[in-house]
Amino acid sequence: MSEEMDFELICEYYSQLDRQGPGSKETTLKALDFIGPLSENAKVTDLGCGTGGQTITLAEALPCNITGVDIFPQFLNKLNDQSELHGLSKRLHAVQGSMEDLPFDKNSLDLIWSEGAIYNIGFEQGLRLWHEYLKVGGYVAVTEISWLTENRTEEIETYWNGAYPGIDTIPNKMQQLQSAGYIPVASFVIPESCWLENYYGAQKEVQESFLKNHTSNPNAIKLIEEQREEEALYRKYKDYYGYVFYIGKRVG
Ligand code: SAM
Fold it and tell me: Could you tell me the keywords of this UniProt record (predicted)?
């Protein structure tokens, strides 16, 4: 899929899911616990929000306005539906835009959230880019694929160095967070259930119906094959890599 990406198919597939990456309500709330209390006037954004599983959790936990930003309107439509369903539409706004060109004033945000999405522009680059949009003392909280061990087997090392060369160990990512102008507040590995149940598990039924709807489309078949290969790889090598929450506070 990577070479001839069919964005329509990708959007159709992923917009049927509540999440487009590993995570859970519990880990979102755990990360939020590291961040000082926010007032009703605080400004919060969730970048690369997708269909907004975690945006809804944030909006329910916080008293303020929150803006979900994503490039795909299909995902934002689902977020808007969910927001209405949860009675949050007065405080939760979905905006089509890019995390590379934020639709906010500099020094205006209290919190920048981004689960499973900063990799699109690179961890360190994203953190540096977003820094000036935060107020001094504002927080950033992101999840990022990371090596959990110092040494890995060749198969998984080769796979990830091809798929995302920015993958690195937790101490190196914390160093990057600090170099980008943040106090490294916390990091924690999100549990395996965030992958196996909430992400891969949730895809099973969607995969069956998606394949039935696209029986003779080679791109659709390839998309599902790739998801299944990725899951098999995770099951085999989950001791070596995972998603890690990184939380930082803007200084200066
Ligand atoms: N945060 C969601 C979650 O954890 O379920 C979605 C994660 S998904 C792996 C990555 C998201 O980033 C997708 O929704 C994709 O559309 C979005 N995205 C990719 N490039 C982007 C960009 N340049 N600006 C904003 N969003 C982007």
Answer: Methyltransferase, Transferase
